Amino acid sequence: MTDSLSQKIVDDLVANQIAFVTTVPCKQLAGVIEAIEDCERILHVPSNKEDEGMGLCAGAYMGGKRPAIVMQNTALGVTLNTLATLIQFYQIPLPMLISYRGEIGEKVACQVEMAVHTKALLNQLAIPTYHFHRPEDAAELDGILKHTQMCKKPSAILMDATFWRGAA
Amino acid sequence: MIRSEVLKSIVPVLDGRLVVCNIGLPSQELHLLHDQPSTFYMLGTMGLASSIGLGLALAQPDKVVAIDGDGSVLTNLATLATIANNVCDNFVLLIIDNGSYGSTGDQPTYAGRKTSLAAVATACGCAHVIECDAAETADVLRHALESDRMTVIVCKCESGNIPVPVIEIPPVVIRDRFMAAVKSRAAS
């Protein structure tokens, strides 16, 4: 059964006409991915790699379906070229729901190695970035999704372990 | 035949169609041969023509031709698994396989040596995979579009380039006129 926070996130996607979501698995976002798969109003196309997923999203957007991507922050590096030369260059609105691995509560040391670069990379790319640390931060998602469509940019919503633990 | 000759031969088939064209010389050549609003030119992002094409085909009902290259498909090889597992019968992927990285100086690709992209596509689960000679491409593509089934075409051609100007259309204009072409189909 989907937890209420994951369901709230997917409800916000649907309310903002997000109709195409690609995902690359993450344990922390497993509930969100399950809720997306179960949602009849969202076409869920899992991708093998995040830059491939962004290509799918760009195509879906031009085909008339608002897209979003679900991914880990550890994959940010492989998406830099795609973000700059496809998503930003062609002005495609793309909410990125990102599990912020490597923050407080992380058990895998290697995850910290990309966590320390995550915000710096997003900042370097001038991507609007939002950090969800407490469950109540999820209330901002609706506004972030609207803002993303308005400005036709990628946006990063980082969700850390404390955010998910607080909701448990 | 080299790639630009293959593109020239398929212009009548592409006319009026939704086309996603690969980065670099393929887009520049197609732009020179037959510019149309319903062609999306990739100005960057090597490897994603097939992904953009599949996303587009999944999102709307009109037929989509994604023109890719062997080097670009090798960059994003897992796209063939995504395509195989998300069947949409309005999608045709045309891989123009000249066995070289044409836009960067014709360095050889592995597809020109031991690796068969048609075999990889088949192994990934793509149900309709056709490898053809360059001269057959227009007929094979026309038939694939008429067949109403998702098809991957691997067109084997010779390596070589012609001098072409870069595309000066701003990316947002390319995207905007392309989306207008998609919308006008949905309305008609």
Describe, in plain words, how this protein is organized in 3D.
The complex is a heterodimer of chains A (168) and B (188). With 168 residues, chain A is of the alpha/beta class. Chain A has one domain: Thiamin diphosphate (ThDP)-binding fold, Pyr/PP domains (Rossmann fold, 3-Layer(aba) Sandwich). Chain A is built from seven helices and six strands, in the order αβαβαβαβαβαβα. In chain A, strands 2-1-3-4-6-5 form a six-stranded parallel β-sheet, with helices on both faces. In chain A, helix 1 packs across helix 2 (30-38). Chain A is globular. The relative contact order of chain A is 0.17. Chain B is an alpha/beta fold and 188 residues long. Chain B has one domain: Thiamin diphosphate (ThDP)-binding fold, Pyr/PP domains (Rossmann fold), CATH 3.40.50.970. Chain B is 43% helix and 19% strand. Chain B has eight helices and eight strands, in the order H-E-H-E-H-E-H-H-E-E-E-H-E-H-E-H. Chain B has helices at 3-14, 25-33, 49-59, 70-75, 79-85, 117-124, 137-146, 171-187, and strands spanning 18-21, 39-41, 64-69, 91-97, 100-101, 107-108, 129-133, 151-156. Chain B has a six-stranded parallel β-sheet with strand order 2-1-3-4-8-7, with helices on both faces. In chain B, strands 5-6 form a two-stranded antiparallel sheet. In chain B, strand 7, helix 7 and strand 8 (151-156) form a beta-alpha-beta unit. In chain B, helix 1 (3-14) packs across helix 2 (25-33). The longest helix of chain B is centred in the C-terminal third of the chain and has 17 residues, at 171-187. Chain A binds chain B through residues 19-20, 43, 45-49, 51-65, 67, 81-82, 84-86, 89-92, and chain B through 20, 40, 42-45, 47-60, 76, 78-79, 81-82, 86, 171-172, 174-175, 178-179, 182-183, 186.
